[in-house]
């Protein structure tokens, strides 16, 4: 299987499963995954949060793990990456306030490289202006943001995936199997077995 380089945009209080599971799964299939956060360097840590669905009106939030970044946002070469992954959690709320993050997202969209986003990660896509006319899903509370940015929001089961060309989206971490399978397919990777 040919290796692919993936850029993952994260920040403090990213959803724990949504950074840990894709990171480890993509490494397992031979991808190189650079995990970056604006204003932090390789070796710095981000804090994660565990979001769970326990019957309340929204998800619950518990402390997660510390996750070590392995690349420095200010030093990345966007052209060297084959795909972009944006996990959810609370991090996208403030990541979308960084102009260089939005420029990076636009670069992937313009190049029509695969972009996977899950849960609240679509807030970054909406703010970057790359959802206009595109169909995607997100955590339901982010649906209005998708619509306000000109996107077509679809509500699907929590373990489902929505694919619109190079745009692969899912509503929450129960969708990891479907999201990662669609992302790998968009990257031109196949798992034999």
What are its keywords?
single chain; 193 residues; alpha/beta; Rossmann fold; 3-stranded mixed sheet; 6 helices; 11 strands; globular
List the helices and strands and how they pair.
Layout: E1 5-9, E2 14-15, H1 16-28, E3 32-36, E4 45-52, E5 60-68, E6 83-86, H2 91-95, H3 99-110, E7 115-118, H4 122-128, E8 135-136, H5 143-148, E9 152-153, E10 162-164, E11 167-170, H6 176-186
Parallel strand pairs: 1-3, 1-6, 2-4, 6-7, 7-11, 8-9
Antiparallel strand pairs: 4-5, 10-11
Helix pairs in contact: 3-4
In short:
The chain has 193 residues and is of the alpha/beta class. It has a single domain, classed as 3-Layer(aba) Sandwich (Rossmann fold). Helix content is 28%, strand content 25%.
Any overview of this molecule?
The protein is built from 6 helices and 11 strands. With 193 residues, the protein is of the alpha/beta class. The chain has a single domain, classed as Rossmann fold, CATH 3.40.50.880. A 6-stranded mixed β-sheet has the order 3-1-6-7-11-10, sandwiched between helices. Helix 3 crosses helix 4. It is globular and about 40 Å long. The mean pLDDT is 95.
| CATH homology superfamily | Class I glutamine amidotransferase (GATase) domain
* Cα-atom radius of gyration: 15 Å
CATH architecture: 3-Layer(aba) Sandwich
CATH fold field value? Rossmann fold
Residue stretches low in confidence (pLDDT < 50, at least 5 long) are: none
Shape: globular
Q: How would you state the average pLDDT, rounded?
A: 95
Approximately what portion of the residues adopt beta-strand conformation?
15-25%
Order of helices and strands: EEHEEEEHHEHEHEEEH
Largest sheet properties: 6 strands, mixed
DSSP strand tally = 11
Helix content: 25-40%
At the first level of CATH, the class is Alpha Beta
Query: In whole angstroms, how far apart are the ends?
Result: 12 Å
Which structural class do you get from the secondary structure elements?
alpha/beta
Number of helices: 6
Q: Spatial order of the strands in the main sheet?
A: 3-1-6-7-11-10
Number of structurally distinct domains: 1
């Amino acid at each position: 299987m040919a290796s692919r380089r993936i850029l993952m945009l994260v920040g403090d209080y990213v959803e724990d499963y949504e950074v840990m599971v894709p990171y480890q799964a993509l490494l397992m299939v031979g991808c190189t995954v650079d995990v970056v956060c604006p204003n932090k360097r390789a070796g710095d840590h981000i804090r994660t949060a565990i979001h769970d669905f326990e019957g309340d009106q929204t998800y619950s939030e518990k402390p997660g793990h510390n996750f070590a970044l392995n690349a420095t946002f200010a030093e990345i070469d966007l052209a060297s990456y084959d795909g972009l992954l944006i996990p959810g959690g609370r991090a996208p709320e403030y990541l979308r306030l960084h102009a260089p993050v939005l420029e990076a997202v636009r670069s992937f969209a313009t190049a029509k490289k695969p972009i996977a986003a899950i849960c609240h990660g679509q807030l970054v896509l909406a703010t970057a202006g790359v959802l206009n006319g595109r169909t995607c899903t997100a955590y339901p509370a982010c649906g209005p943001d998708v619509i306000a940015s000109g996107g077509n929001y679809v509500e699907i089961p929590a373990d489902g995936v929505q694919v619109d060309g190079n745009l692969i989206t899912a509503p929450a971490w129960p969708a990891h199997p479907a999201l990662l399978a669609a992302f790998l397919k968009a990257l031109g990777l196949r798992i034999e077995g």
